[in-house]
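Changelog note: in this version the structure field was regenerated for every chain. One regenerated record is shown below for reference.
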Amino acid sequence: MRFAPIPCAVGLLCCVLLLGTVPLGTSFPVQDEGKPGITFLEEVGRLRVGFNWRNLTCPVCKVLFTILDIALLSDVNEERVARAVGEACIRLHLAEERVCRQITELFRDDFIRALQQSLLWPSEACALLVGRSCGRFDIYAPWNVTLPRIPKPPVTPPTPPKPGAPQSRVLFLTDIHWDQEYAVGSSADCKDPLCCRNESGSPSWRQRAAGFWGSYSKCDLPLRTVKNMLENAARTGPWDWVYWTGDIPAHNIWSQTRKQQLSELTVITRLIHSHLGNLKVYPAIGNHESTPVNSFPPPFVRGNRSSRWLYDTMAEEWAPWLPEQALKTLRHGGFYTVEVQPGLRVASLNMNFCAKENYWLMVNSTDPANQLQWLIHILQASEEKGERVHIIGHIPPGLCLSSWSWNYYHIINRYEGTVTGQFFGHTHMDEFQMFYDEATMTRAVGVAFIAPSITTYINLNPGYRVYLLDGNYKGSSRFVLDHETYILNLTEANRQPEGGGVSSLFPSPSQHPIFHPDPNPKWTLLYRASEAYGVSSLFPSDWDGLIRTFVQDDRVFQRFWYLRHKGHVSEPCIDACKTTVVCFLRSGRYDELEKCDQLEFGGDTAVRKTLC
């Protein structure tokens, strides 16, 4: 970690440009372009919308940041520099003019204040944005957590429960992304990072129009779809409890306010409570809950720039679900632990403390809020009591900052006999990531389940997940035994024909299909994992074996690819695409993504990265 006055406040442009490196609303690590890159991140890049940071070359980047350095030596220049950054965003075609100006204004103060407590030179900023060939970026220094000097107990491989043993049914919700401005009939193919809104305009004859229940485009959801999902989920029960891993607001990150964020948090929390009754819900915080997006200062930041405005409201709204001790740590750092049932505990992590896009971590990225050290304390106590622990969070640990990801991986290795479930969201896809023993990286010790989003963003059906767990009885492993994914088929729900006459939704006489939405669409079972993949159990070793099957049997892999997109995918995934996906599935630790060109599965079969 480094604590030094910043000699150059290059941060605001860095912030605006950084938004172009990832899909809005994600926390995927930035790809280093100075060496062969990570193909997974290139695949993610195919979904990027709105910003185009690659218009920035290395020489232009360094000149631009040097000028900003000199200008920002004086506080009186911040306003004019902010205007210049807005102009740069526009001229570099990073976004539409309105979005550039609004996002510059929104991010300006917090980002510059964070950087004034850090150290970021032009070469570091440009290495972050353009690649290692343009400089060196090492502001996130390596660090280690401290494990107790207690030997790891012998690990007994999990076995299926006896026939007839109790099971728990857990509803899993993530990435709702409710858009208050969703407008039926508006353009689904606008130029903004988010469409299907009042400000998206009417579609031209070559553009799609926003559907009643949602749209296959870069659009989020109307509230009626969220309500319909909860109604269907309630009917699909009964449930034993609910895991909910965040991201409530829409992707209009350039025009959000604290008041709006808190209002949406309150509305969705109360909707869940009203539809699911007295059922216990265990939430986790997403990266979109704050504004500016991804802005989660560690607890050492106090006053108006802290996250107290958000955490206090969460504690107030979630009080019916969480005990006072959990609310205390929630107010402190956005994480908590609760005993779900005798023998089972959940630890809800604030994964924003591992995200590179959280610019406050440039001040100090060493175990923010001491969250991982806290987790070790919880796991050690649970190990001693014989408890099993589920970990929930928003961003998958394999997509975190390298040191945070490495330490988390180390913790999972040490407590593999205690942590029997890891549940995340964030990518909007239906996927998973593996954890292997650190000594050989061959024996599977854990799996992080990554559940599909409720939102359609981007080009997806809405969906939610159901986990079937080893149930509530003495000696239960609490492992996931199976899972199901339910979706709303938008083609059927919107009942939109391929052609049609002029809809009354459109004031101009353009050829658009007539909308006849189903007034009460049903969410249907897309698949059950055991049936779809022909496996009898879903322990970590089974998922490792399934990855090997993906490599050897393309038919099974293409089935996974289809289900990964919640039943809405236009083309198969082959060659470099397949290599990318298989690598991602194996990489529960971020640095493992960088070793994909050496990924081997034994025998004559190897998956190698060939295109970057």
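Spot check on this record: The first helix runs from residue 11 to 18. The chain has 18 helices and twelve strands.
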